[in-house]
Amino acid sequence: MLIGVPKEIKNHEYRVGLVPASVRECVHHGHKVLIETNAGRGIGTSDEDYIAAGAEIVSSAVDVFTRADMIIKVKEPQAIERKMLHDGQILFTYLHLAPDPEQTKDLIKSKAICIAYETVTDDEGGLPLLAPMSQVAGRMSIQAGAHCLEKAQGGSGVLLAGVPGVLPAKVVIIGGGVVGENAAYMAAGMGADVTILDRNVDTMRDLVVRFGQSVKTEYSTLLAIENEVLAADLVIGAVLVPGAEAPKLVSRDLISRMKPGSVLVDVAIDQGGCFETSKATTHADPTYIIDEVVHYCVANMPGGVAKTSTYALNNVTLPFVLALADKGYKAALTDNPHLMNGLNTHKGDVTYKAVADDLGYAYVAPSTAIHS
């Protein structure tokens, strides 16, 4: 199979779909790999490194999209990239379609086979291709939140850890999954006063086992969210409904009553965000202020630490890339129901139910679509 890797073009996105080690594995399996020139520059990887691994360097994304049987990316294809997709071409990347009707419409029109990292599952019910970026984003959320709390950034001027004789910041994390756990790890490690809200008692029990008394847990109700958010210096939005738009758990009215200079970091922004006032931002202009509350809503947070993120992502995507290339997508999806769950659109059909429901499309079961 001819595998193509374009340079990412989303604002301040420096990750790359395949690192040289992954390219070498693909070549070892008998496949050819096209890499757009300078695709790896953002992680310190040169064209020469890719050539040494067996790749062919091409001068433009047009070359990649025109020639490749399968496109491997990191972020969702931008409008100019979606125009280059063609009938029957495989696209394997993060998509986050539910809050993005324009992208969904374009992918349907392209008739490409679009497989989303974020909806591939595993035997434990987890999302293995989302997990490493959730780990990164969870940890980054505390770094970003601590910075935003500084007075020069519009924050209240509170040091996350406090100092002897001065209380630390109160950090509230809504959602105790991978993002929430990793945010708690960072916040507790920095000495903050940390509370996690969740509705899964088993999840909260596991968090208590991991963190002991350094992290508090509370069952998430409307009243609990209200009380905790109003008391918080920093709120991390870490909720996830796989493949679907994130629920709005913090209202505009509640935000208007928060302490002046408090900070919201919405890690769910890729799926539309869980704060009513959230709107996607970029690393170039990451924050805005509403009702004296600082909002950090960067839609590709892990892109800020591109080298760590790229290698973490390749560690989990490579086996699936090889399966798709070695077997062809129909056999690879049929043989692995977890990979089948990643199929979001197929030759004009919407094959992920949450996307179809959220955006008003007819749903076609993925197994039906690929064998029709």
User: What profile does the largest beta sheet have?
Assistant: 8 strands, mixed
Name the helicity range.
Answer: 25-40%
Number of helices: 15
Would you identify the regions where 5 or more consecutive residues have pLDDT less than 50? none
What is the CATH T-level topology of the largest domain? Rossmann fold
Reading the helices and strands in chain order gives: EHEHEHEHEHEHEHEHEHEHEEEHHHEEHH
Mean pLDDT across all amino acids: 97
CATH architecture of the largest domain: 3-Layer(aba) Sandwich
Structural Rg: 21 Å
Count of separate structural domains: 2
**Superfamily (CATH H level) name of the largest domain:** NAD(P)-binding Rossmann-like Domain
Distance from N terminus to C terminus (CA atoms, Å) equals: 23 Å
Number of strands: 15
The amount of beta strand, in percent, is: 15-25%
| CATH hierarchy, class of the largest domain | Alpha Beta
**Within the largest sheet, what's the order of strands?**
3-2-1-4-5-6-14-15
Structural class: alpha/beta
The dominant shape is: globular
Descriptors for this entry?
alpha/beta, Rossmann fold, 2 domains, 15 helices
Plain-language structure description:
This protein has 372 residues and is of the alpha/beta class. It has 2 domains: 2-119 and 306-370, NAD(P)-binding Rossmann-like Domain (Rossmann fold), CATH 3.40.50; 131-299, NAD(P)-binding Rossmann-like Domain (Rossmann fold), CATH 3.40.50. The chain has 15 helices and 15 strands. It has helices at residues 20-28, 47-53, 61-67, 79-82, 101-110, 131-148, 178-189, 201-211, 222-231, 252-256, 306-327, 329-335, 337-340, 353-359, 366-370; strands at residues 2-5, 32-36, 56-58, 70-72, 90-93, 113-116, 170-174, 193-198, 215-219, 234-237, 263-266, 287-290, 293-296, 343-346, 349-350. Helix 1 packs parallel to helix 2 (47-53), helix 6 (131-148) crosses helix 7 and helix 11 (306-327) packs across helix 12 (329-335). The protein is globular.
